[in-house]
Amino acid sequence: MRHLLSTGDLDRDQATLILDTASELAQVADRSVKKLPTLRGRTVVNLFYEDSTRTRTSFELAAKRLSADVINFSAKGSSVSKGESLKDTALTLQAMGADGVVVRHSASGAAHRLARWVDGSVLNAGDGTHEHPTQALLDAFTMRNRLGRLEGLRVAVVGDVLHSRVARSSVLLLTTLGAEVTLVAPPTLLPVSVHTWPCEVSYDLDAVLPKSDVVVLLRVQAERMRESFFPSVREYTRNYGLDGERLGRMPEHALVMHPGPMVRGMEISAEVADSPRCTVTEQVANGVSLRMAVLYLLLGGS
Ligand code: CP
């Protein structure tokens, strides 16, 4: 494995290896070993053309915990504002010795294009509405930690599937690992290609909730949305928002997940977001171990 561009590129053994490596690295962290020397002398570039809180900082922390040098590049304040292209920017960073490039970009396919231009490994940190592989991996890692397995798990992915890069990555990864995924959304927030995806589709959240072991809520991405796609906030929340009453209809062991950032009061009520059944902060913590595992396997592993 040289790049991580899509969870669809991972077979079951490769995906399991990433999750198992993350478990081992989490145990190392638990034993208070502050840093591993694994990536000493390697350089990781965080190349972010879109805003990020969780992904950028956890990739930075993960690379530093493996002793890599880290360059944080944000398009804002760079020569991108003078018209420099993604390719020229990437080649410039490569000339400075980047071994790995973590890229987030608003264009679907940007990470794949970058992988053709640079010599080092490319890690897709979110490309447009296409994929977000490390988010799907850290979510699967969290499910496996909490529920002990992925095989046979019934996972509902709920909300703005149309604009979500997490949804596609999660469907591809979770089905590879033996889970059964149902996408739940209003018809206007589903891509036309959804019936070719390896999952079930439902418009009825209340029918799906009692049968779900995990509910992954997606952020409604207002910034990517044309008005015609969007039901009113009140209508969306009434039909697809997870509140305390709906949480009560889920099995007692079932988890509520969200990749963040959450829009409280819309896709998730404050009561649910703050409940012990909601794993949002645990997902963030797991993101560091998972991204350490990916960097280790791509840049330093055997
Ligand atoms: N989940 C996620 O990708 O969050 P950020 O946009 O903050 O990185």
Report the major sheet: 5 strands, parallel
What's the CATH H-level homologous superfamily of the largest domain?
Aspartate/ornithine carbamoyltransferase
Q: What is the annotated CATH architecture of the largest domain?
A: 3-Layer(aba) Sandwich
Number of helices: 11
Number of strands: 9
Taken in chain order, the helices and strands follow as HEHEHEHEHEHEEHEHHEHH
CATH class of the largest domain: Alpha Beta
Q: Give, in spatial order, the strands making up the sheet with the most strands.
A: 7-6-5-8-9
Total of domains: 2
Distance between the termini: 10 Å
CATH topology of the largest domain: Rossmann fold
The stretches of 5 or more residues where confidence is low (pLDDT under 50) are none
The helicity comes to 25-40%
Shape: globular
If you average the pLDDT, what whole number results?
93
Backbone structural class:
alpha/beta
Question: Roughly how many Å is the radius of gyration?
Answer: 19 Å
Oligomer: single chain
Strand content is 5-15%
Ligands, deduplicated: phosphoric acid mono(formamide)ester
Keywords: Pyrimidine biosynthesis, Transferase
GO molecular function: amino acid binding; aspartate carbamoyltransferase activity
Domain Aspartate/ornithine carbamoyltransferase carbamoyl-P binding: 2-144
Binding site for L-aspartate: 82, 165, 219
